[in-house]
Input
Amino acid sequence: MRLFLRAVDRMSEVLGVLSMLLLASAVLVVCQMILMRYVFRASTVWQTEYVVYALVAATFLGSSYVLLHRGHVGVDLLPTMLGGKAKLALELLGGLISLAFCAILAYSGWIYFHEAWAHNWTTDTVWALPLWIPLLPLPLGIGALCLQYVAELIKLVEGSSSLTASELSVIRENE
Output
């Protein structure tokens, strides 16, 4: 089990770095596009499309990294008010619902990606990028997010989650 948890956490870290590189490349391409348009008065064909796809890919691919580091926005009023087993149950329920949603999204994203791949779809632009390329980050990133949710749920059940040590000791004392 520990090997699975380490592998998923490592995968999320790698995807986080890839996401950061995509964001950096988008910034560089925007700078290049501005230089081409306003300094050299040249047309830009692929830059805008690349930037949009890179930012979307960075969002999907980086989602498991954000979950690993608890960076998602959350409202914690109710969990703060609850204690012990109720807080643990709420975290488990939230994790399971999130996992179910992400699994459905990953599956539907995979179907869309596969159709684009099988039918050789391309974008309707001058660049005519094969559409499977910008569609691939959805099933990959959300699939990785599913694995990270499984890992976080395992950590939660094992007691190494986001709950503080004092909260975990209260839960164990009440059992």
User: Anything to note?
Assistant: The chain has one domain: 2-174.
